[in-house]
Amino acid sequence: MELELRDFNGMKSTDVLGLWYGYKRIISTGFAAGQLETLKAVFKKYGFLCGMLDKTHDYKKQGGTCILSRDPGHIKTALAAYAGNRFDLIGRLLGYPECCVSYHYKTFYKFTDEFVRECSARSGKFLWPLNNVLDFDGRLKKVAAQPDFNGLGHASLISHNPCSYDCAKSLELAKKNYFYLNKHIRHPGPESDYSLLAKPVLYADDFNLAILNGKSVPGGAEFAGAAFILGFAGLEKELNAGGSLLLRGRVLSISRKGKVVLKKTLSKKPLVLPFDVHASA
Ligand SMILES: [Zn+2]
After folding, report:
1. What integer pLDDT is reported at residue 93 of this predicted model?
2. From the CA of 132, how far away is ligand 1's center (Å)?
3. pLDDT over threshold 50, residue 143
């Protein structure tokens, strides 16, 4: 049978592909109240079995969360692992690279809302296929603050938090997902547009970031405006207008035609993540 991604409306395409092609043994998906019966019919069509996760681990607190697999044994193992908070075992069943699983299992209970900053500090390079600044799954503490990225195309080519933005195993997975996404998404449009991932990101914390149309330069960026802004209340206008962005410690400044149009001291040192640098490679 041919896989139709549109059958899995609302689910991450990379997850569905991973399960379909067998590089994920399980995936999980949340669903809204009243949606389960429709989803079950879709799962049955593709031979995916479904086990319900207990309410404690259903972190999105919607209608519920189910674990999907072709193998009932994997569902049983996954539900037991959740019950015992063995997120390392779950990470492996989900097909995440071992280096990323062990790193996150070690640091899980120390999680702040600064995943991106911590990951950046561990990165030698910023490989755009691993850019997951828009993917909040799995690193979300402020559930209520989860942004709505509808219409933005793919938020991420990977469905895990990498141990670094140059993790080789994560890059392999991103390439595999990219290959299968291109095979299954037949109509070009927002769904097949990954260009957002290959742009520099101005980052203050996981809830204040901006994707810039332009290029990163040492200590800042030259940009024509913002492709997307999350948070940064009060700075939107100048970010959308573009210019030369300079970071010095906690101070962010933007100038146009040699004139400073914005100077702002942020509560934490902002960063420019240069996901544009290796974009042509
Ligand atoms: Zn890794």
Report:
1. 96
2. 13
3. no
- The predicted-structure confidence for 17-36, as pLDDT tens digits, reads as follows 999 999 999 999 888 878 88
What the block records as the tokens of 158 is: 């990977």
Query: Ligand 1 being an ion, which residues bring their Cβ within 5 A of it?
Result: 97, 99-100, 163, 167
Query: How far is ligand 1, taken at its centre, from the CA of residue 170, in Å?
Result: 6
Strand partners, 259: 256
Both structure tokens of 256: 């146009």
Tell me how far apart the alpha carbons of residues 25 and 27 are, in angstroms, rounded to a whole number.
7
Question: Hey, what amino acid is at 122?
Answer: R
Provide CB contacts within 8 A for 130, sequence distance 6+.
Answer: 157, 158, 162, 165, 166, 167, 170, 171, 174
Token pair, residue 147, equals 């942004």
Q: Quote the pTM value.
A: 0.89
Q: Determine how β-strand 243-248 pairs with β-strand 251-256.
A: antiparallel
Question: Which tokens hold the place of 180?
Answer: 């299968």
Residue with tokens 């079950």: 40
- Residue 83: phi and psi, rounded to 5, are -60, -30
Q: How remote is the CA of residue 160 from the centroid of ligand 1, in Å?
A: 10
- pLDDT of res. 50: 94
Tell me how far the alpha carbon of residue 97 lies from the centroid of ligand 1, in angstroms: 6
CA atoms 115, 119, 121, 126: torsion sign: negative
Is pLDDT at 176 greater than 60 in this prediction? yes
